[in-house]
Design goal:
This protein has helices at about 5-15, 20, 120-125; strands at about 25-30, 35-40, 45, 50-60, 70-75, 80-90, 100-105, 110. The protein is an alpha+beta fold. The chain has one domain (about 25-125): Beta Barrel (Lipocalin). Strands 1, 2, 3, 4, 5, 6, 7 and 8 form an 8-stranded antiparallel sheet that branches. The longest helix is centred in the N-terminal third of the chain and has 10 residues, at about 5-15.
Length: about 130
């Protein structure tokens, strides 16, 4: 999606990045405590059997650190059935609103995809298994 100059100006005034303006979020699934969204426009193949995409976790209640929502770049390894998260930003409000509480650029360890849960659904979206 190409942003026109007026759209870029509006994004700058509102403090939004062009990437955020061009995002196409869809609901992956939800549990009693969290809803997971993925940005369709950010999905990309990064290796022979690896994919990445931006995701949002929107928590129903704040966690012990006061986090109500977080955005991160998730990577999925289709061959080894694993995932890892990086470039995470956590917010006090729902859907990335409120005060930004934490910013972590580093990626975590690769973790096995749980048999049940939202990461399993995201894995199926990327890997089709």
């Amino acid at each position: 999606m190409q942003l026109r100059p007026p759209a870029l100006l509006l994004a700058a005034i509102l403090g939004l990045s062009p990437l955020a303006c061009a995002a196409s979020w869809f609901k992956v699934g939800s549990t009693a405590s969290v809803t997971l969204y993925m940005d369709r426009n950010s999905m990309q193949k990064i290796g022979e059997n690896q994919w990445r995409a931006w995701e949002i976790q929107d928590l129903k209640e704040p966690d012990p650190d006061g986090v109500r929502s977080r955005r991160y770049l998730a990577e999925y390894d289709c061959e080894h059935k694993m995932y890892r998260l990086g470039r995470m930003a956590s917010f006090a409000g729902p859907m990335l609103t409120g005060e930004k509480l934490f910013d972590v650029e580093d990626y975590g360890y690769w973790r096995t995809i749980p048999r049940r849960g939202l990461f399993g659904l995201a894995y199926v979206i990327h890997c089709g298994k």
